[in-house]
Amino acid sequence: MYRPSSMWTWAFVGVACVQAAIVLAFEAYVFALFQTSLEGDAKKNTFEHTIPTFLTLYIFGFIYQLLLVYDALRLKNTIQIIGLCLYNVGLLIYAAVQMDQINDAVLSLDTYHEINVTVWPAVKPFLIAIPCVIAVGTVAMSMGARKLYDEFAWTIYKHISADLRMKRRYLTYQIYIALLKFDFFFFLGFTIQFVVVVVNVKDIEFALTIAAMPVTILILLMAGYFTRKETLLGMVGIITLYFGGLAYFLFKLVRMYQHTTRARRYLPVRKSLTTFAVITIVLIVLTIINAIMCASNFKRGLKPYIASRKVESEDEKPMSMMEMPNLSHGPVPSRMTID
After folding, report:
1. How far, rounded to the nearest angstrom, does the alpha carbon of residue 193 sit from its chain's CA centroid?
2. Other beta carbons less than 10 A from residue 33's beta carbon
3. What is the reported pLDDT for 309?
4. How much is the CA Rg of the chain, to the nearest whole Å?
5. In the structure, what pLDDT confidence band is assigned to residue 200 with cuts at 50, 70 and 90?
6. What are the CB-based long-range contacts (under 8 Å, 24+) for 169-173?
7. How many CB atoms lie within 10 A of CB 171?
8. Which of 108, 116, 152, 126 is nearest to 54 (CA)?
């Protein structure tokens, strides 16, 4: 089992854990204040679901981030570490949007006298503090990422033996795998908000959306499998599904801002849904581009490097998904750096 072995790996883990603990504590406190301030028939109002949804997403988001931090450090994956800093920026944007959304929820509930309005000044300082904490965490993680890049690059340098073209192919593969991991969170984040706040459980759309979750997870898993096995037909199918996903999110984004009765359902979480939809669309476009690049690298000698990947302890010359094994004497693990 992997354990951080240097000051900067411990620092990176520490920043992620402290940030998660503080933000989740603040969110839990806001949630408690909000729930205790509800009055009358507030539970029938869709705005009442706003804070529980935010809290659920943050719990999932930070737990998932901690898992990715462990995974990235275990594999010494500099691409994923850089991606985690950008992931934190996404959480920061979401935190900034959250304050406005909760204010809207309080105002809406107050219209029907379903909330004690004194809750807003009570929770506002915490809602301001949350993006501040994440901003500080992002800066600290970025500094740590730079140090880890240098630290891992030295290990990579000691073991590198692949040619430049192969390194670039492997880098493309690494970026693609990292994108798949982040695609999962932002798709699921959008879906959770959509199901909890927007869709009526009696609608057929609710059942279809719930069914889409395990299907999406399967698609992402198969995307990684087809890439490792260099199955071109499978990759063509996956890329086709990516375009379908892109069309879905574009459709939802346009639908949220139409002047229709159905569009009003989105109001409680429209800003946060927009944030997740835009980020997901950008990620899908990047994923499609990288999937095509990975497919173009099939049958060009990359498969043995991927197939021979193995994670060892520090004393056994660790390698990662960023590694390039020395194939001159057989598939022996090695490492690479980002050019």
Report:
1. 15
2. 17
3. 54
4. 22
5. low
6. 169/297, 169/300, 169/302, 170/302, 170/305, 170/306, 170/322, 170/324, 170/336, 171/79, 171/336, 171/338, 171/339, 172/290, 172/293, 172/294, 172/297, 173/227, 173/294, 173/297, 173/302, 173/306
7. 18
8. 126
